[in-house]
Specification:
By secondary structure, the protein is α/β, with parallel strands linked by helices. It is 40% helix and 19% strand. It has 3 domains: 2-122, Tetrapyrrole methylase, N-terminal domain (Cobalt-precorrin-4 Transmethylase, domain 1, 3-Layer(aba) Sandwich), CATH 3.40.1010.10; 125-152 and 162-228, Methyltransferase, Cobalt-precorrin-4 Transmethylase, Domain 2 (2-Layer Sandwich), CATH 3.30.950.10; 240-279. It has helices spanning 29-37, 46-55, 70-82, 103-111, 124-131, 149-159, 175-185, 209-216, 240-249, 254-265, 269-279; strands at residues 2-3, 9-11, 13-17, 40-43, 62-64, 87-90, 115-119, 139-144, 165-170, 191-195, 203-207, 224-228.
Amino acid sequence: MHLGDRGARLSGTLHVVSVPIGNAEDITLRALRVLRTAHLVAAEDTRSTAALLAHHGISARLVALHDHNEREQAEQMVARLQRGEEIALVSEAGTPLVNDPGFRLVRACIDAGLAVDVVPGACAAIAALVGAGLPVDRWLYAGFFPREAGARARLADELGGLRATLVFYESPQRLAGTLDWLAATWPARELCVARNLTKQHEQWLRGRPADLRRELGDEDRGEVVLLVGPPAEAPLVQDADALAQELLARGLDPRTARDALAEATGLSRRDAYRKVLDLLGR
């Protein structure tokens, strides 16, 4: 907590606490201490948090904080912190704010001049990144892989040429379709699919999109982190005209064919698009 010039109690601290992503032992001693001593634990899912706390012999007052009530709860928690209470913020799993609630609360605390203490720990994106075998000198976390065709086209435009490993979360039910899209758009990229990290059925799939799609089959279960390696420094050398014809013969739309052609041959996206349009007689 903050202390005034004469040591008077002024305000409490918001502790942003990382919790396990699967294995209940993946929690720090500091996190356990904070959860044990906090006046209140704000949890995305109170049931899973209660089970975690019980596993570690901790009894705490829980309150739900999720996407639907965060704005209201943030106001109330700022007031509690200003009265000197200590609050711990946790997600259902992993690190709060990373595709989880908490941003509004953290921002509200900062705007109110309250202390925010980060207790680092498990994060699925980081765990997958360091085990994927893909470059880690430059990487970008990009949230959930987009669902809609337009959003995926924008993704290819904005991130396709970035020489960095891209890290996404993905729904297990959409993974097969996403791999099909990647096989058509970025066929030469090295991928990693990390599923059920730290859990009993942990699985790592590594390879090119089409290979992983075949290996995946009809499997549609498990928490998924999808990693896309950067484009090769020296693109594959192929006959651009023949490849463009092949891509169009597969039924790819012109923009998707353009991206796949540029990826495989090293052509600029503009030149690849011109070649595709020429073959279409446009």
